[in-house]
Batch of 2 targets.
Target 1
Amino acid sequence: MSNAERLSHKVLIPEIRIKNRIKELSQQINYDYQDKELVIVCVLKGSFIFFADLIRELEVPLSCEFLGLSSYGGKMETSGEVKVTLDITEPLKGKNVLIVEDIVDSGLTLQYMLNMLRARQPGSLRVCALLHKPDAMKVKLDIDYLGFKIGNEFVVGYGVDYQERLRCLPYIGIVEKEH
Ligand code: IMP
């Protein structure tokens, strides 16, 4: 699909379901991290909207960090090659770190990230992901806080793009090629 082609899409997860699920996830996170401080890591670019909505429901003291990773190179399938485009600035040693990811698909990006951050010796390291495609997983990983399990369809919206397009949809949609 070239960037000039028109993309249509249909709604997979409506805005209200995302909103409600974020309330549930944040209640769990607030409970698990009560009396603790959190370093919460937004994985760019896809999780920035999820991250912004999630942190506004959190009541624990936190600092925000941003980690830029790119793995797809504009394609619809993972290459398995992960490139760090922006690194966290804060030392993580002994800290409670929570990674906020948009989608765990093959799991290769998350595996790379976990190895990279574990080497910085955080006190704890957990993962919160909005979406998970269990049938696509190539590695065994635990997701501590998960929004929704979905099938192997290619999704967009709510921060998630296809070649930088459709990121701003307020819901999660499935791409359908028009031309
Ligand atoms: P993984 O390494 O295969 O788990 O891929 C993870 C990353 O690929 C996610 O953080 C997304 O940025 C991207 N990705 C995976 N599935 C989709 C999709 O359906 N739409 C858009 N991006 C996706």
Note: The pocket of inosinic acid is lined by residues 46, 71-72, 78, 101-110, 154-156, 160 (CB under 6 Å).
Target 2
Amino acid sequence: MNKDKLSSRDVFSSKFGVIAAAAGSAVGLGNIWKFPYITGVYGGAAFLFVYLGFIALIGLPVMLSELSIGRKSRRNVFGAFKYLAPNSPWKLVGMLGVAAAVMILAFYGVVAGWSIDYIVKAATGSFAAKSPNEMESMFVNFIEGPVSPILYQLLFMVMTMAIVIIGVKDGIEKYAKFLMPLLVVIIIVLCIRSVTLDGASEGLRFLFNPDFSKLTGDGILSALGHAFFSLSLGMGTLVTYGSYIDDKNNIAVTALQVTIADTVIAILAGIAIFPAVFAFGIEPSSGPGLVFMTLPNVFQQMPGGFFFAILFFLLLTVAALTSSISILEVVVAYFREELNLKRNFSTILATVMISFIGVFCSLSMGILKEYTMFGLNFFDLLDWISANILLPLGGLFISLFVGWYLGRKKIEEEFVKGARIVNWLVMVFIFLVKFIAPGAIAIVFLHGLGLFNFG
Ligand code: PHE
């Protein structure tokens, strides 16, 4: 990258801008759609607690590592590794991130398309007077499509592309600043309605009363994978955001705020959903449809539910957009930097490619559902490989890079820029990125993939 390009990079003017952008990327379908559904699949509270442990011990240090790499290099993930570790294979970490981004956005677009369809369903009164069973068949009939879920998926992908091309990302983030708090308000309203349903307490027990004997190696690996997925880590998204952060900002505080916001929203989503799951007799391990099959029942049983439902799916779609743009940008950056393609062309090419793969994800819910690998359909396969393998692998390399390659002096320098951070905190961070994060990722990997049994 040449000098002009570097000097014309702008930095976020306000602290809130950085947090809004990073939180916009982190908070999305991961919190509201994926977290409840995989918590249901892996048995509830025990999964939640392992997930929280991973967030604190691995997610937070990896997030700080990504922000540090970005701010130090003032480049996106490809440029960053080339600049900080010239002529070394470290830039392959960026490639891993591109592979993850392509896979994630392919199925992410499908689920976001479901959310758009549910705006329409809510607005046309489709939830009215339906029993929980009918809600379930309505969902299943819809995702089996084949045509309409694909059209909504493509619509979402075009919206994502348009935002990246027109460059109104900052504008979107301005709206997101008040739309996301509004989403949180609606989720809290849903929580209140949900926990006051008959039979709600069983749902709360499911979510908060752990039975660790239910945990499997695959469940632990999925908790790790979801910590990365939900915080947008392991593929360089936050390297790019870090590159725009002013030297005067305290990145440790930013990382902490984003992590807390993301985690609180996921837990709130869990509280909104599980009591209702039990109250309406829905199977907690229903899979990717859990949220779509459950929440319409709750809306139906609350005052103003008609409007809340429209608003909820609308805001969920916006939350998905502020995440999907950050995923698309990883691929676009790759096309531009490594293949020297023009920005707009890169964006269109990436969108077309990812949408095409996404179509097969959508079809794997219906006409292609018989085609499986390791017992997973195409949709689940992309989700599993990207979240449970590629992102943690990316996180492993990123923590090794910061902890072992950059070394203590450089981290300390970057870390204390813009903040007066006490010495022991720096030491804790270094200890976490050097030993705990890579060690834990390696162990969970080997155990989860059945390559090694840690008992
Ligand atoms: N964190 C986003 C979500 O929870 C998804 C995402 C993953 C975004 C990886 C960027 C990178 O919805």
Note: Residues 25-26, 28-31, 104, 229-230, 232, 235, 237, 323, 326-327 surround phenylalanine (CB under 6 Å).
